[in-house]
């Protein structure tokens, strides 16, 4: 079988492809089905590419293709318009690779807690069952997956690691290409150059899974608590569609939803918990500091509350880097100007900042001492020696999940396993209390398991 034939073999298997985009319709396998992309059930519509059922995301217009009124889905329109006259080619043939070999060449060593979780993931893969991997920030979740993925490859399975964010896809791709150097890996996100041609491992954004149907035997969802996966119900449908009916789904998170926590604590779902980091030091615990109406202080006096400025000065004297999280973009410039009064290199970033990546790189390289940021950096960025401040930690944007993730920026490196975390507030919120409680509970469990050194 030549390379072109091998690629064509997987062109349609496990795919959902618009019929009008197919160059050679005669190549469509006889096992494929043709379905209507947007279907009407009595009075409601559903998009069968993205799973959307929210009726306010459907619009009707006169269609030049079918010369009649057509309804289309706005939910996934950035990936191409799906209408009631669009035909999708779907093929859910459950097949495995003939080449049933692993490819793991990672020479690292798992800690006892990582090994225990890794074994549970392997059991789920072998038994085709689902699992929640609940591991604290910095626990090394990716490394816990390697052996289970290798087992899946040995069984001829197709593996996908999906995450809500493009930057995480790129970071994971580097790590998997190092761990599985001889294994074909597809890297899929909006604008990526890769195409899926039956690669053993796929690393993609969750949205790219809209192009697949019943192909992945092992589907790993990273950061299940992150936007937009945590609020877009149709993306859960997309994940279910992409996995084989008898496959395994592994969900990864450091901050599971309240519902997931309740189900886990009551043993209603299979889960593995890793409450400790590899360096055997407890998670840094946040402290609370009341600062009153800090917005008024900034607006009237162009300065930050005295307790916050005093804290910043003490941390800077110790030559540490500082993440200063703020609740809204509109105060970014004012806070930056106030911090600069300390004559320290400071910059600010937010989701609309075109220089965000360059500024984060400067912070990572030590060219910036204080990075003022919205929750856009609550996860994904790790600095070797950093301390954390949250301004207005009682505001609505700072949920339990966000505050736990933010706290997880501190103490990750073995050379700097501790760190200061300060929540500056105008009244202690329930979310603040929950976040601190969750961190304390993880530390307690880590001590009970013997995975943390005694105080």
From TrEMBL:
<feature type="domain" description="Helicase C-terminal">
    <location>
        <begin position="307"/>
        <end position="455"/>
    </location>
</feature>
<dbReference type="InterPro" id="IPR027417">
    <property type="entry name" value="P-loop_NTPase"/>
</dbReference>
<dbReference type="GO" id="GO:0006310">
    <property type="term" value="P:DNA recombination"/>
</dbReference>
<dbReference type="InterPro" id="IPR014001">
    <property type="entry name" value="Helicase_ATP-bd"/>
</dbReference>
<dbReference type="GO" id="GO:0003677">
    <property type="term" value="F:DNA binding"/>
</dbReference>
<dbReference type="GO" id="GO:0043138">
    <property type="term" value="F:3'-5' DNA helicase activity"/>
</dbReference>
<keyword id="KW-0067">ATP-binding</keyword>
<dbReference type="InterPro" id="IPR001650">
    <property type="entry name" value="Helicase_C-like"/>
</dbReference>
<dbReference type="GO" id="GO:0016787">
    <property type="term" value="F:hydrolase activity"/>
</dbReference>
<keyword id="KW-0378">Hydrolase</keyword>
<dbReference type="GO" id="GO:0006270">
    <property type="term" value="P:DNA replication initiation"/>
</dbReference>
<keyword id="KW-0547">Nucleotide-binding</keyword>
<dbReference type="GO" id="GO:0006302">
    <property type="term" value="P:double-strand break repair"/>
</dbReference>
<dbReference type="Pfam" id="PF00271">
    <property type="entry name" value="Helicase_C"/>
</dbReference>
<dbReference type="GO" id="GO:0005524">
    <property type="term" value="F:ATP binding"/>
</dbReference>
<protein>
    <submittedName>
        <fullName>DNA/RNA helicase</fullName>
    </submittedName>
</protein>
<dbReference type="InterPro" id="IPR006935">
    <property type="entry name" value="Helicase/UvrB_N"/>
</dbReference>
<dbReference type="Pfam" id="PF04851">
    <property type="entry name" value="ResIII"/>
</dbReference>
<feature type="domain" description="Helicase ATP-binding">
    <location>
        <begin position="122"/>
        <end position="274"/>
    </location>
</feature>
<keyword id="KW-0347">Helicase</keyword>
<keyword id="KW-0238">DNA-binding</keyword>
């Amino acid at each position: 079988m030549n390379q072109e034939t091998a690629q064509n073999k997987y062109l349609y298997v496990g795919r959902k492809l618009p019929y009008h985009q197919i160059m050679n319709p005669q190549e469509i396998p006889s096992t494929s089905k043709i379905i209507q992309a947007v279907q009407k059930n009595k009075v409601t519509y559903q998009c069968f590419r993205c799973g959307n059922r929210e009726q306010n995301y459907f619009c009707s217009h006169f269609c030049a293709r079918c010369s009649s009124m057509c309804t289309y889905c706005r939910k996934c329109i950035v990936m191409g318009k799906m209408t009631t006259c669009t035909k999708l080619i779907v093929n859910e043939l459950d097949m495995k690779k003939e080449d049933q070999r692993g490819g793991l060449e990672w020479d690292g060593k798992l800690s006892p807690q990582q090994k225990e979780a890794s074994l549970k993931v392997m059991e789920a893969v072998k038994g085709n069952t689902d699992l929640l991997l609940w591991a604290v920030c910095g626990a090394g979740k990716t490394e816990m997956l390697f052996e289970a993925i290798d087992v899946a490859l040995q069984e001829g399975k197709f593996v996908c690691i999906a995450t809500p964010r493009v930057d995480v896809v790129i970071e994971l791709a580097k790590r998997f290409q190092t761990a599985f150097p001889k294994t074909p890996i597809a890297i899929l996100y909006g604008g990526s150059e890769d195409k899926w041609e039956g690669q053993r491992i796929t690393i993609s954004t969750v949205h790219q899974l809209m192009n697949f149907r019943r192909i992945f035997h092992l589907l790993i969802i990273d950061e299940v608590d992150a936007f937009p996966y945590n609020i877009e119900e149709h993306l859960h449908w997309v994940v279910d569609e992409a996995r084989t009916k008898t496959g395994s789904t592994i969900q990864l998170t450091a901050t599971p939803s309240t519902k997931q926590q309740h189900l886990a604590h009551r043993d209603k779902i299979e889960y593995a918990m890793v409450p400790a980091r590899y360096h055997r030091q407890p998670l840094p615990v946040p402290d609370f500091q009341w600062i009153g109406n800090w917005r008024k202080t900034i607006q009237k006096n162009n300065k930050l509350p005295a307790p916050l400025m005093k804290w910043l000065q003490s941390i800077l004297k110790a030559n540490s880097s500082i993440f200063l999280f703020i609740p809204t973009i509109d105060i970014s410039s004012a806070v930056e100007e106030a911090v600069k009064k300390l004559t320290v290199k400071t910059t600010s970033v937010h989701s609309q900042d075109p220089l965000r990546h360059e500024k984060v790189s400067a912070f990572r390289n030590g060219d910036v001492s204080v990075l003022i940021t919205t929750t856009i950096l609550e996860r994904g960025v790790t600095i070797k020696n950093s301390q954390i401040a949250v301004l207005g930690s009682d505001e609505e944007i700072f949920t339990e999940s966000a505050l736990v993730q933010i706290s997880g920026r501190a103490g990750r490196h073995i050379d700097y396993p501790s760190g200061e975390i300060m929540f500056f507030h105008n009244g202690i919120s329930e979310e603040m209390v929950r976040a601190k409680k969750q961190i304390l509970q993880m530390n307690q469990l880590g001590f009970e398991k013997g995975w943390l050194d005694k105080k």
